[in-house]
Amino acid sequence: MRPVAVFGPHKLKDGSKDPQVGNVDITKVQGLGNVWDEFNVEQYIALQPDLLVSSMYIKGTLWYVPEKSKDTVEQVAPTAGIMLTGRSATQVIGKYEELARSLGADMQGVPEAKARMEAATKELAQFKNLKILMMSGGPDAMWVVNPPEYPDIVHLMDAGLDVVKPAKVDEGGFFQTLSWENADEYDADVILYDTRTQSLKPEEMMKKPTFAKLPAVKAGQLYPWNAEAPYSYQGYAAFLEGLAANLKKAKELP
Fold first, then answer.
1. Which of 181, 187, 180 is nearest to 166 (CA)?
2. 105: which residues sit within 8 A by CB, 6+ positions away?
3. Contact indicator for 47, 31 with CB cutoff of 8 Å
4. What digits encode the pLDDT tens for the residues 161-195?
């Protein structure tokens, strides 16, 4: 069983695969939209799908399905939304596994991938003494993410990692917006930066003097955070193994 189409981030500017699409072969599926508020309804109707699956950060709102197209999309085929907010990655992946089984998917390789994810999760406990800040950068601001709202960060904290929780969260609850002048608001031994295409790259953030002066940045303890890693045991095993490999290089800062 394979999807006939995808929407949301799946193709980078150079035509290669966006990490968010996981192991989907994008040369064999129809792309209905690659950015926010882009969804080709005509192509979707022509495909005659049996089911649309997406995530939900807000109950009843399918991620990357534009509000203006929602009614039409829901008339074409049933939809299934998996809630992300307030859950751990394990719970979310479990829901996707449940859905896949109910659709008769081939579950070959799932037990092995699950064991890999569990092993990588256990390895993270050794880094509990590191204070970790998780953030995303924009041209005029940096956003410190609010752990309870993100399944991947809930999973990391359940595994024993000490992740900074912002003192004052913006409306919506997902992060605290800081000006780059206030980039030193929180102490951290390690900074994990959002690698998604809309976020600034490290070399761009390093042009912000206050960010470049942060102890974690000066110590070279700035590592990628694969935000929105695919919700599968395989996807998370790779994400957690990569994170553990980076944290092994880090140390507590004075």
1. 187
2. 1
3. no
4. 999 999 999 988 899 999 999 999 999 999 999 99
Instruction: Report the Cα–Cα distance between both ends of the chain, in Å, rounded.
Output: 53
d(C-alpha 237, C-alpha 117), whole Å: 4
Beta strands in the chain (DSSP E): 5-6, 30-31, 52-56, 79-83, 131-137, 141-145, 162-163, 175-179, 190-194, 222-225
Q: Are 44 and 31 in contact (CB under 8 A)?
A: no
Rounded mean pLDDT of 138-146?
A: 96
pTM of the model: 0.89
Asked if 171 contacts 137 with a C-beta cutoff of 8 angstroms, the reply is no
Which residue reads 């035509």 in tokens? 15
Contact 24, 30 (CB under 8 A): no
Please enumerate in sequence order all residues whose Cβ is within 8 A of that of 160, keeping only pairs 6 or more positions apart, or say none. Answer: 124, 125, 127, 128
Distance CA(211)–CA(58), nearest Å, equals 32
Q: Are strands 131-137 and 141-145 parallel, antiparallel or unpaired?
A: antiparallel
Inter-CA distances, 35 with 6, 38, 70, 74, 196, Å: 12, 6, 16, 20, 12
> Using only C-alpha atoms, what is the Rg of the chain?
19
Distances (CA, A) of 93 to 11, 48, 82, 123, 213: 23, 27, 9, 20, 38
- DSSP summary character for residue 173: S
Residues 6+ positions from 151 with CB-CB distance below 8 Å: 84, 87, 88, 89, 91, 92, 231
What pLDDT was estimated at residue 127? 98
Question: Are the C-beta atoms of residues 44 and 76 closer than 8 Å to each other?
Answer: yes
Alpha carbon distance 157, 128 (integer Å): 9
